[in-house]
Amino acid sequence: MRARSKRLWGVAIAGLLLVSAVTLSAVALKQHADLFYTPQLLAEQGKPDAGKRVRIGGWVQIDSIEYGDGADMTFLIEDGSGETLAVSYTGVVPDLFREGEGVVATGRFDESGAFTAENILAKHDENYQPRELKNARQATS
C-alpha cells in the first residue's frame, strides 16, 4: 500500500470515529436533558406532555407549604409574574428549603396536570452563610 493510501484510510477512520463520538454524545445528552420551566412559561405555553421529565424553578410561596402523612408535602412555586404552580413531593427536603427562597424541582406532570417532584434543589445566592454562623455573628455584634 502506498503512503497516500495509508493517509487516506487514516483520515477516513478518524472521521468515522469522530462522527460516532458526536452521535453517541448527542444521544446520551438528549436522554438526560431536562427542560427548565417557570410558572409563567407554563401558563403561556401550556404544560408539557404527561410523564416527560422537566425542571420547574422559582420561589417557594410564603405560607404555601403543607405537610401530609409521613414525608409528604405540597407547596406552591411562584416566579414574580403572578402565576403559581402546585408541587407535591415525598421525601426529605434540603436544609436550605424554606418559604420565600429559590427552589428547583425536577419531576413529571401526570395526566391530570399535577406536578410531582422527584428531586428538590434549594438555591441560594453567592452570599450564603450557614444559619449557625449567621447566628454566631449576630451574637458577637
UniProtKB/TrEMBL annotation:
SUPFAM superfamilies: Heme chaperone CcmE (SSF82093)
GO CC, alphabetical: plasma membrane
Gene Ontology molecular-function annotations: heme binding; metal ion binding
Keywords attached to this entry: Cell membrane, Cytochrome c-type biogenesis, Heme, Iron, Membrane, Metal-binding, Signal-anchor, Transmembrane, Transmembrane helix
Top-rank lineage group of the source organism: Bacteria
Pfam families referenced in this protein's UniProt entry, alphabetically: CcmE
Binding site for heme: H124, Y128
Signal peptide: none
Compartment(s) where it occurs, according to its Swiss-Prot or TrEMBL record: Cell membrane; Membrane
Chain ranges on the Extracellular side, renumbered to this chain: 29-141
UniProt membrane topology term: Single-pass type II membrane protein
rRNA processing is among the record's keywords: no
Record function comment: Heme chaperone required for the biogenesis of c-type cytochromes. Transiently binds heme delivered by CcmC and transfers the heme to apo-cytochromes in a process facilitated by CcmF and CcmH.
Protein family (similarity comment): Belongs to the CcmE/CycJ family.
Protein name: Cytochrome c-type biogenesis protein CcmE
Organism: Henriciella algicola
Name of the gene encoding the protein in the UniProt record: ccmE
